[in-house]
Write a structure and sequence with these properties.
The protein has a single domain, classed as Histone, subunit A. Helices cover about 70% and strands about 0% of the residues. The chain is built from six helices and no strands. It starts with a helix and ends with a helix.
Length: about 100
């Protein structure tokens, strides 16, 4: 299709593809700038944050997929994600920082 050939051609070089990531670096950069976290935001920080988010997402989805498989389900449900996070010591510790 035209869309596919346009994306695979040389003219589309996204920040994400140049960084070897799937998560949207440009969107993360925009949200960092608009978020008021600092007066200025370097572009490297958006790449780093996108990489961290992508890694955490992949890790959680892998564990949630295992939980779904253990429950004989072919679809990941919110409960499977919760089980995955709560049963992993490091993720549980990370997410417990955000509880009231």
């Amino acid at each position: 299709s035209l869309e596919k050939s346009w994306r695979s051609s040389r003219w589309l070089k996204t920040k994400s593809s140049m960084a070897g990531l799937l998560f949207p670096v440009g969107r993360v950069y925009r949200l960092l700038k608009r978020g008021g976290y600092a007066d200025r935001v370097g572009p490297g920080s958006a790449i780093y944050l996108a990489a961290v988010l992508e890694y955490l997402t992949a890790e959680i989805l892998e564990l949630a997929g295992n939980a779904a498989r253990e429950n004989k389900k072919s679809r990941i449900l919110p409960r499977h994600i919760q089980l995955a996070v709560r049963n992993d010591e490091e993720l549980n510790k990370l997410f417990s920082l955000f509880e009231p």
